[in-house]
Design brief:
single chain, binds pyridoxal-5'-phosphate, 36% helix, 4-stranded mixed sheet, alpha/beta, Aspartate Aminotransferase, domain 2
Length: 431
């Protein structure tokens, strides 16, 4: 049997051989070694415990090592851990897909399961393309997306990410050329003005013949800047898509499962997209799984024209372990008074972070649901600030100019206070 590595051996192998997200192997910033996690705490190899403010990139909404989620996986392992989905079906996938149909906005009643958020976006883009090609509308082959948008790191998903801050400059010669509208500029609570929508409208007017779908993150542009925008904007986008005969894809990979204060962010505007992408919190952060939902109109059109089938089929599609833990995570969420929990977190984030508005280095403080954002004027040195956060016993990973919190929903008020206090202390110390 292989002997477990010592923390020192892990550190050496990590430094010499392992890529981390968006990282350099020649000038790596330190990777902290986690040996276990429980509740909202991560335990490092040197015994340090950190309160988690990130929910592991917005996925671990119930925290770590949760008995109900552990049990779902252990029970499922005793039955079947994986089986191909081609020509086979099973109870965990059926339960999950029926639940997703029931809890997502009206009209989305077909579900395609895949491995990760980016892949669910690829699936959504392909569904939109096949919807039009099945009707021999081959000219509808481009997407309208938004500046500051983020939809994932695979090639198709990258093509609809922000063209400046995304990775277009690196992959410019390969990426499909999409059409970009200005990012929404209306704040979440701003009174509606028609001018907010002029740019998208004019781009649709000029290009709708060639546009398969609009893709948008409802209410919050996440990794592109954590900007919240008015629900009226989504309503107007829905109307524009209908009048210009273009599909609407809502990417709720970051916002789904309660994070913004509604179960799905589309509910803020009472809109139903034609295609919906879900991921991240779908399994409570336990397993990688994503889902793309669409209307019967889309599935019927795809299946009645062209090849007659939808052309995608990942090896791990519908993985039973992932589906069973997703079922347990959704039950856990819906069986609790999660709205009150999110309101409590929201009130505390606002109360405790809003004072930072006055700080000379802070540009803006904003909160929505269980999300608190402190935007600095200058780009943040992540390696440097993370060391300070760790010394405060908290796990926060800023990006670009933003320090933010998206804690697990089961965080106590005391632990949340440690996170907000830690941010205040570190900003005062470094800026
Ligand atoms: C809105 C949105 N779409 C897509 C993705 C990509 O998901 P994944 O990292 O699971 O591929 C993300 C990840 O941050 C996201 O926030």
């Amino acid at each position: 049997m292989t002997k477990p590595l010592t923390p020192e051996q892990v550190a050496i192998i990590d430094k010499n051989h392992i890529w981390h997200p968006y990282s350099s192997l020649t000038k790596p910033i330190p990777a902290y070694q986690v040996v276990s996690a429980s509740g909202v705490r991560l335990k490092l190899s040197d015994g340090t415990e950190l309160i988690d403010g990130m929910s592991s990139w917005w996925s671990a909404i119930h925290g770590y090592n949760h008995p109900a989620l552990n049990k779902a996986l252990i029970d499922q392992i005793g039955k079947v851990s994986h089986v191909m989905f081609g020509g086979i079906t099973h109870e965990p996938a059926a339960t999950l897909c029926k639940t997703l149909v029931d809890i997502t906005p009206d009209g989305l009643d077909k579900v395609f399961l895949s491995d990760s958020g980016s892949v669910s976006v690829e699936v959504a883009l392909k569904m939109a393309l096949q919807f039009w090609s099945s009707q021999e509308r081959f000219e509808k082959s481009r997407f309208l997306s938004f500046k500051k948008g983020y939809h994932g790191d695979t090639l198709g998903a990258m093509s609809v990410c922000d063209p400046v801050n995304g990775m277009h400059s690196l992959f410019n010669h390969t990426l499909d050329k999409q059409i970009f509208a200005e990012a929404p500029i209306c704040g979440f609570h701003d009174a509606w003005e028609d001018r907010y929508i002029y740019d998208v409208k004019s781009k649709l007017e000029a290009n709708s013949q060639n546009i398969a779908a609009v893709i948008i993150e409802p209410v919050m542009q996440g990794a592109g800047g954590l900007n919240f925008y008015s629900p009226f904007y989504m309503q107007e986008i829905r109307k524009l898509c209908d009048s210009y005969d273009v599909l609407l894809i809502a990417d709720e990979i970051a916002t789904g499962f309660g994070r913004t204060g509604k179960l799905f962010a589309c509910e803020w505007s009472d809109t139903s997209p034609d295609i919906l992408c879900l991921g991240k919190a779908l399994t409570g952060g336990y397993m990688t799984l994503a889902a793309t939902l669409c209307t019967s109109k889309i599935s019927n059109t795809i299946c009645s024209g062209g090849s007659g089938v939808f052309m995608h089929g990942p090896t791990y599609m519908g993985n039973p372990l992932a589906c069973s833990v997703a079922n347990a995570s959704i039950d856990l969420l819906l069986d609790t008074d999660w709205q009150t929990t999110i309101k409590r977190i929201n009130t505390q984030l606002k109360d405790q972070l809003s004072g930072l508005d006055e700080h000379r280095s802070v540009k803006d403080v904003r909160c929505l649901g269980a999300i608190g954002v402190v935007e600095m004027f200058e780009k943040i040195d992540v390696g440097k600030i993370q060391k300070e956060f760790v010394s405060e016993g908290i796990w926060i990973r800023p990006f670009d100019k933003r320090i933010y919190l998206m804690p697990p929903y089961n965080i106590s008020s005391e632990d949340l206070k440690k996170l907000t206090n830690g941010i205040i202390k570190v900003i005062n110390r470094l800026y």
